[in-house]
Amino acid sequence: MSDNIHLPVINLCPTMRCNLKCSLCGVLVPQYEYRPHMSLEDFSVMLKTIFQIIDSTGKLQLTGGEPLIHPELPEMIKECFQYQEKFEHFLLITNCTIPIKSELMEILINNKKKILVHVSDYGIKQNIINETLNLLKDNDIAFKYYKYFGNDQYADGWVDQGDFVVHGRQEKELIQIFLRCTHVKRGSWYVRGGQMHRCGRSIRGTELSKIPLRQEDYLDIYAGSLEERREKLHKLMNVKMILACDYCNGLYGTEDKSKRCPAGEQL
User: Fold this and answer.
1) pTM score above 0.85
2) Percentage of the chain with pLDDT > 70?
């Protein structure tokens, strides 16, 4: 069997639907109609398979879309905590414009030692934002608050990553883009539809048929023996670039000094 596999961050997207239409959405949710819900059964099988292939992750993150839209989100989080010995922290990422229902809150309370809620505030439905923050505080659930409206926005706003436009770059430039990318530096991996990608843009672009799907750019988590899948993942952990780098404008995440734009502006 291959050496121990630890991935810093794994992002799971139970839904690509969202109740907002942010013009600079990093995965272009409102610009395209493909916005699937994942079934609880598929989610459970995916989790089991992921934690057969890898040994551990630092952060298991639920993102989207907007996770709170999914009607089976509480059950999905319960499923995640069946593997809590495999991850150090669990992050729930939300735009905080949908109230947290009692069933979900109970699960958060019961697992709060490992849970962190990532609250993005776009200045929309401020009453729900305030209620949610008070609820998290009252129940001693850890959260991080990110202000994305008006002045003093977190990281001075968002980065415009552009649409899926091919640039025709040479390999040397693609390698530079890949190695400078903050998502790559954080060690973020994205899993959806039976595929594991190094980049959210890669998995989003390929599922929309905007970026060609190359075998060397992703792992089919269900194909081949367990040993073969672990070996393929080891190779992916050491790549120097992926094709999606040629469909990126070369601007990155929130930690670098790329040009900033106002966050959360609605289409």
Assistant:
1) yes
2) 97
